[in-house]
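Structure in, sequence out. Go:
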């Protein structure tokens, strides 16, 4: 019996075909389409683009426009304080930005 079958059978006791199907679908996606992790620079670039921001808009989180620029060029890593501020500004878990430490 494969891992998926065992997980599906064990979920049977929880009831509901929708839940079993959703769980099986999640297991399949995890096995066949793993979500790649993104580095902090890519995440911040995406957030800037999606929210129509400029580098200068992140000065409160970085301290200066040159610090923002250096981070986006990969010349500087995020500090814990910057991670906290970015997390608060974008209302995302700090884990999203930890790749930059």
């Amino acid at each position: 019996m494969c891992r998926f079958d065992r997980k599906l059978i064990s979920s049977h006791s929880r009831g509901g075909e929708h839940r079993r199907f959703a769980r099986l679908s999640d297991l399949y996606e995890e096995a066949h389409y793993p979500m790649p992790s993104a580095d902090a620079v890519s995440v911040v670039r995406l957030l800037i683009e999606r929210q129509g921001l400029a580098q200068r808009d992140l000065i409160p989180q970085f301290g200066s426009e040159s610090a923002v620029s250096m981070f986006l060029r990969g010349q500087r890593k995020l500090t814990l304080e910057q991670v906290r501020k970015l997390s608060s500004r974008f209302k995302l878990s700090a884990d999203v930005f930890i790749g930059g430490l």
